[in-house]
C-alpha cells in the first residue's frame, strides 16, 4: 500500500509540474545523479529515462522497496566522484540534521552542480479564522 501511495504522490507532483522532474536549470551534459530517499525508485527511473544519461542515477533509501529490475542508467555506481545533481523529495519530517545533510551534499557536488529539494508544507489556514483553536491546528504545531 505504501509503495502505491509513493508512486501516486510522484505522479501527482509530475502532473502539477507539467511533467518536469525538477526545477533546477540543469545543463544537457549532466551524468552523475543522486536521489536521496528514493522510495520506490520511480523518480530515479523516470529521470534517467527522460534525460537519457550515459552514466547513472543512484537512488538510496533506508527501505528496500525498489523494483528488482531497473533500467541500466539507474544502476549503482561508486560515491568517489561527485554528483552533478542531487535530488531529495518528501523528507521534511524525516531528516533530523538539515545543516549536516546540506553540507554533505555540497561536499559531494561537482562545481556548478545542483541540489533540488521538493516537499510540501503542512500549514493549514482559513480566511475566516474558523480553523484556529482546532485539534488539527494544535497537532500541526507539534510537528518538527
How many strands, which pairing sense, and closed or not: the largest β-sheet? Answer: 4 strands, parallel
- What is the terminal separation in angstroms? 25 Å
Which stretches are low in confidence, meaning pLDDT under 50 for 5 or more residues running?
A: 73-78
- Chain oligomer state: single chain
Structural class: alpha/beta
Strand-residue fraction? 15-25%
Provide a count of the helices: 4
Radius of gyration: 17 Å
What's the arrangement of strands in the largest beta sheet? 2-1-3-4
DSSP E strands, number:
4
The outline comes out as globular
On the 0 to 100 scale, the average pLDDT is 80
Helix content: 25-40%
> Helix-strand pattern, N to C?
HEHEEHEH
Describe this structure in words.
A four-stranded parallel β-sheet has the order 2-1-3-4. The protein has four helices and four strands. The protein is an alpha/beta fold. 29% of the residues lie in helices and 17% in strands.
Give a short overview.
This protein has 4 helices and 4 strands, in the order H-E-H-E-E-H-E-H.
Observed structural traits:
alpha/beta, 144 residues, 4-stranded parallel sheet
SSE blueprint:
Layout: H1 2-16, E1 33-36, H2 42-51, E2 57-60, E3 83-89, H3 98-107, E4 109-118, H4 135-141
Parallel strand pairs: 1-2, 1-3, 3-4
Amino acid at each position: 500500500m505504501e509503495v502505491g501511495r509513493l508512486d501516486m504522490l510522484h505522479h501527482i507532483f509530475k502532473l502539477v509540474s507539467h511533467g518536469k522532474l525538477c526545477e533546477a536549470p540543469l545543463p544537457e551534459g549532466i551524468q552523475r545523479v543522486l536521489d536521496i530517499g528514493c522510495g520506490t525508485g520511480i523518480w530515479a527511473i523516470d529521470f534517467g529515462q527522460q534525460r537519457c544519461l550515459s552514466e547513472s542515477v543512484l537512488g538510496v533509501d533506508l527501505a528496500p522497496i525498489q523494483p528488482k529490475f531497473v533500467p541500466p542508467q539507474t544502476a549503482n555506481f561508486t560515491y568517489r566522484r561527485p554528483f552533478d545533481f542531487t535530488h531529495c523529495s518528501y523528507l521534511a519530517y524525516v531528516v533530523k540534521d538539515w545543516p549536516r545533510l546540506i553540507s554533505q551534499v555540497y561536499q559531494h557536488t561537482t562545481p556548478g552542480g545542483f541540489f533540488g529539494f521538493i516537499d510540501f508544507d503542512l500549514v493549514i489556514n482559513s480566511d475566516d479564522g474558523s480553523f484556529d483553536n482546532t485539534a488539527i491546528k494544535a497537532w500541526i504545531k507539534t510537528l518538527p
